[in-house]
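Researcher: Go.
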Amino acid sequence: MPTLPYGSWPSPIEAAEVAASSPRIDGARFVGEDIWWSESLPGERGRTAILSVGIGGGDTAPEVLLPAPWSVRSRVHEYGGGAWAVTDEGSLVFVEHSDQRVWRMAPGTEPEPLTPADTGARFGDLVCSGDRLLAVRETHDDGAAAPLRDIVSIALDGSGIHVLAAGRGFYAAPAPSPDGRLLAYVAWDHPDMPWDRTDLQIVPLGATTTHAPRTIAGGPGVSALQPEWSGGALLYASDASGRWQLERRRADGDEPGDEQQLTSGDADTGGPLWNLGARWYAPLADGRILAVRTHGRDTLTIRAADGTGERVLDVPISAQILVRDVRGARALVTGAGATAPMGLWLVDVDDPGATRAVRGGALPRDEAWYPRARAMTFTGPSGPVHAFDYPPTNPGTHAPEGERAPYVVTVHGGPTAHVAGEVSPAVAYLTSRGIGVLDVNYGGSTGYGRAYRERLKGQWGIVDVQDVVAAASGLADAGLADRARTAIKGGSAGGWTVLAALTGSDAFAAGISRYGVGDLRALAADTHDFEARYLDGLVGPLPEAEQIYIERSPLSHMDGLSAPVLLLQGAEDRVVPPAQAEALRDALAAGGIPHALVIYPDEAHGFRQAATIVHALESELSFLGQVFDFETPGVPTLPLER
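Model: Structure:
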């Protein structure tokens, strides 16, 4: 076995392999004897297609049900979700990305529009209910201060649209009762985000005019999510106890005590509602409940209808689990695991050993090339800091005795989100070359309860920075990382933490920011409506907290930055506009700091196209090699400027 310095180990894992792995799946359904799902296709400029295979599986290649150039993607709240559904007779209804209209496609026919053109309307969270389609609608009017949102019923014969619920800032999760009488949904208003406070409400569904809603759960300091009907009662998740737990309530119950908490303990069934259509549990036809339970990592559980008798299913996934559809005792679930990359899985709750991947879920090469994540906890100023360590892993190479590994500390976006230690081809792209990766769930992350999540309340740019510094220092103190060759990388809100850590500490020798935030006031002025008041909770309300915005912004402290920085940005990003990256580039150039800015045309917030993913990964590796002084054979050199 050859001995080579960390960072320069030869690896067969190329950036193109990473781009082609781990499909991006948004929804799946049982349709007759087939399974349908939506998948982003990096090789087709990132368009989202609807694919299909038979339930029986086998080696049959998926059938593309929706051909190019059609692309299924909602832009409600900018992050979208719930962009397609299937009617009782097997027709596809979907939101076309280019015009945001709802279209219907019967098998063997061309799509036909169900909603009019040029109205400024977007649709998401689609749910079929008999002869109508329910959806969250977001209407953009150039003369309005903010978009208007409501829940609407769209006739599947194209005869019209009528409003079911209106008057709130945001809506999600329309859930019609099986008898067609009632509609349950989630609503909230600025300045709250859906993990801060929501109201679970009910209105009559059969009426053609809007009615005053009845609020049955949620309220101040409580996030209620995902209403589902089961056995004449309403199920939902609520974090009134400090963790998202499942509760049941009679639809006609108004008195305290009408609700019944079905789960308990130090785990969540629920998560941050960034995307519409997210489902963390599903009631089965026999009343049992299939649910995701999260504390750091995910588990998939099945329990009796009364919440008793929880059984953990032995399945190969433990991260990013969402329940997409159920039929009988079988479920379609997306997720990843310690040795299984992201995939769509068919799970039999009575025979979990028969779980199989429908799409994805398989590593492209031997497991020996992929590190097993090690859960680690460090001590930070605000309390414990949870993280997952991916050590350098290469079955054919080792480092010289006594050399410590360079590391990349990765910071997830959100910041209201979390990581769970799943196997990752993108991580293996680095670790197989001798570069370790430490993935940090800093204070503010989900997956550890409301108290951990709210450690970041008013403290963004402080607690998150302290926590990633504590994690990096703890790893170096343990002798696992080279303190002088530790970089920090993050995207979006994670990019903010990258820049804040570089300007506010000396813990990192380099930084990589993907579409990161550098100026808080500019972000507050330029970002989209869904997040327009997000900073109220993370930093403080404007204009009262303006001085804090100035003080916290990395652009206010560029004179304290000396580490090289790589900036990667999408030209069409409406969440963190390119002006942020350009201002950072100008400040780096003015300070004579080694840097590079790459702006990708036709990319938005998050990279979807194969060519972009490849170039970004190779650029990051070239950048690390240059600043940490190791060879990166086979990777084009990214020019750095001063």
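Model: The chain has ten helices and 36 strands.
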